[in-house]
Each structure stands twice: as C-alpha cells, then as structure tokens.
Amino acid sequence: MTTAPASRFLPFAAAGILALTGCSAAPAPATPPISCARGAVSGQGSSAQTNAVNAWIKAYQIACPDASVEYTSSGSGAGVRAFLAGDGDFAGTDTPLSTADQQRADARCGTGRAVHLPLVTGPIALAYNVAGIDGLRLTPRTIARIFSGQVTVWNDPAIAADNEGTALPATRIRIVHRSDGSGTTANFLAFLTGTDSGWAHGDGSTWPLPGGLGQRGSHRVVAAIGRTDGAIGYVEASYARVTDLPAVAVGTAGGDFVTPTDDAAGLTVAAAQVSGTGGDLRLRIDPATTTGRGYPIVSVTYQVVCRGSVPEAARSFLAYAASDRGQEAAQRAGFAPLPAALRSQVAQAIAGLR
After folding, report:
1. Which Gene Ontology cellular component terms are annotated (predicted)?
2. What is the pTM for the complete model shown?
3. Angle, nearest 10°, between helix axes 76-84 and 99-109?
C-alpha cells in the first residue's frame, strides 16, 4: 500500500462551460473533496442500510486507500448486541436504542454517551407478487387485517373497497415477515400501532404472530416474495426496486394513497422532531399525522457511536456519509437523501465527536 499523509483530499475537476454564444460561463461550483484518515473502521447491524453503506465504502476507499472500512449486515438487533459487547466502531439500527440498551451502550462507551446519527432514510415498501394485480392500494386498516390474518384472499371485500374497479383474484394471501430481530419490523409495527388501523398485536422488533413465511434479512424477504404467488411483505424500498417488485400505495391520514418514493419519504422525515440532546439525534415520527404526499411508513437508520472515543478514521467515514456527496451516493443506491436541515445537524454532531 502506498504511504500517504494522514489527511488526503480527493482531486476534483472543474471545467468552464462555453455558452452557445461562444462566451465563457463561470465555472461550476466545486464538489467538496473527501477528507481522509488512516485506520480501520468496522460496523455491523441493519440490513436495510446495507446497499447505502456498501456504496459509501466503495467511494470512500477509492478516495482513501489508507483506510479500511468493513460492515457486517447482521440485522439491527444483532448489530446492537455486538456493539454493546464492545465490537465495532458503530452499530447500524433502524430504531433508537431502548432505555435499557442506552444504559448498556453508555457503560460500554465509558468516555461519553452513545449517540444516534441518522444517516440513511427511506420508505418501507409493502412489496407484493400477485398475478393480475397492478397499482394495489391499501388503507392502514386493511393492511392490519391482512397481516393479522383476518383477510386471507386477495379478492376479499376489504381489499376490493380500497381498489374500486380492479379485478382481484381469489389467490390466497401469503405473508412474508422478518424472522430475526429487525428495525424494519419495528418501524412497520410502529406504523400499524400509530395509525387508526385496529392493530392489536403490539410493536417491537420481533414479528409478533405465528405463521407466515419468516425470512432472515431483507434480501431473503424479497426473494421469498418474488418466488411466491400471492405474497406480500414489508421491506426497505430499495430492495423492492432492485428486484422489480411492485409496492402498495398506502392510505394516509388525509385520505390520499401514496407510493413509497424517496420524495414522499423525505416529506415525512423532514416533519420529524429531534428528541435527543447533546448531539444525540433521535427522531420522533408520527405516522398518524402524515397527510398530503408524505409516505407514512418510513425507516431512519442510525449509526450508534460512542461520543468521546470515535477513532479518526470512523469520524472521517461518517462525515463523508453525511456529506452532500455521500447522500448522493446513497440516493443512487435507492435511498432518500437526508433533508437539508437534518443533514446540517448530523454534520455538526459528527464534527463534535472525539
């Protein structure tokens, strides 16, 4: 490996653009470079964010050959447990730490509190595979009845009422859910419990009902949906897009049906409230208040780090991920970029890590 200074900047090119009149235009604004550091960085956790993290790792290591970054896609629950046991520089989790886990994380950190940095946001899609159905629309109440097993066939009157004029088959509904502890599960259940859906099975990161097709990891969820006629499941939207699975348009409190686009998820995240203090950027999202074009089932993936003892290479990598360039890379990987105001808060919080 070539020896390089501790801080390296990725070169950029800026060229003047000639207008059609032949006059020289002002150079385009330069994209800020990546500020690199030496060292190894490791993290583990949320499978929902894997595609974004892999895009960051690829770009960062091209720019920073003296850094090594590894991420293990183990699921939010496993990632948090590993972090609490002292493994890795950060844990990726789709839900904030519980009170008990926060206390354990603070004890693990020793030199400062464990803080949450939101870096990946995006819609959770209800992906489905039903021959003959396209453009499916479902209200929260119908979604709750499907996933609780009360509605068992696709031509049920409740589904028909949400899809007037659509010919629905009598295909049996096959539920696909996560079998491992998952932040995606937690966010989906938070949507069901936080809206007027009639859901009576609680929340949490573990799927609460027996039956269905339980799958470990987001990639296995979409694979199971794709090979099963009549299937429906919840998964981070980029996985549905890359496998060409259609996604449900979900009813909102305002009576609209909204598809899981990045822009629609961004509207919901932009309306969230920061509930943490001292650089801890937990977000409070209320799906019951989502109206207009905001999509109501969203995931915010946090990197949990120890404030006061973050290695320089980890700070450098996280700062890149939160930057405009890093968020553009995440967007190309299928995720919604952080809203501008939140991005600024995250950048400030990372700058304050030591």
Report:
1. ATP-binding cassette (ABC) transporter complex
2. 0.81
3. 40
Cα torsion angle, 294, 296, 299, 305, sign: positive
> Looking at the domain assignment, is residue 206 inside a domain?
yes
48 labeled binding residue: yes
Do 60 and 101 fall within a single domain? yes
Any known ligand binding at 94?
Answer: yes
Distance CA 129, CA 233 (A): 9
Q: Tell me, what's the pLDDT at 53?
A: 97
Q: Is residue 108 part of a domain?
A: yes
Query: In terms of residues, how long is the chain?
Result: 354
225/321 same-domain check = no
pLDDT per residue as tens digits for the range 118-127: 998 989 999 9
Same domain? 162 vs 254: yes
For residues 7 and 36, is the Cβ–Cβ distance under 8 A?
A: yes
Residue-number span of the structural domain to which 143 is assigned: 124-261
Among the listed residues 277, 112, 97, the one whose alpha carbon sits nearest the alpha carbon of residue 186? 97
pLDDT tens per residue across span 205-237: 999 999 999 999 999 999 999 999 999 999 999
Domain count, the chain: 2
| 131 & 253 share domain | yes
Q: Is 47 annotated as a binding residue?
A: yes
DSSP 114-179: EEEEEEEEEEEEEEEE-TT--S-EE-HHHHHHHHTTS--BTT-HHHHHHSTT-----PBPEEEEES
Q: Is the pLDDT of residue 43 over 70?
A: yes
Residue 83 has what pLDDT? 97
Q: Is 182 annotated as a binding residue?
A: yes
Choose among 138, 118, 101, 143: nearest CA to 49: 118
Q: Is 13 a domain residue?
A: no
